[in-house]
Design goal:
Helices cover about 45% and strands about 10% of the residues. It has about 70 residues and is an alpha+beta fold. Strands 1-2 form a two-stranded antiparallel ribbon.
């Protein structure tokens, strides 16, 4: 769902497979404090899990450089 929404909104992203990349897993846990996916980082914020409302705020921030609440 997250990848699809980012693609629909024309937001570039980098997807990492933490099941196959131990370095990516370690970085994800360090950044988010969690072992849940997805983890999104942008505009100085970290979102763990699919939260459409916060994700749309992050997308708006990325596109317009506004704050995520």
């Amino acid at each position: 769902m997250t990848k699809e929404l980012l693609s629909q909104e024309n937001v570039p992203f980098k997807a990492l497979d933490v099941t196959k990349d131990r370095d990516a897993l370690a970085k994800m846990v360090k950044v988010s404090g969690a072992r849940s996916v997805p983890v999104l980082v942008g505009c100085g914020e970290v979102i763990v899990g699919f939260d459409k409302a916060r994700l749309m705020q992050m997308i708006n921030c990325v596109k317009n450089r506004t704050a995520v609440e």
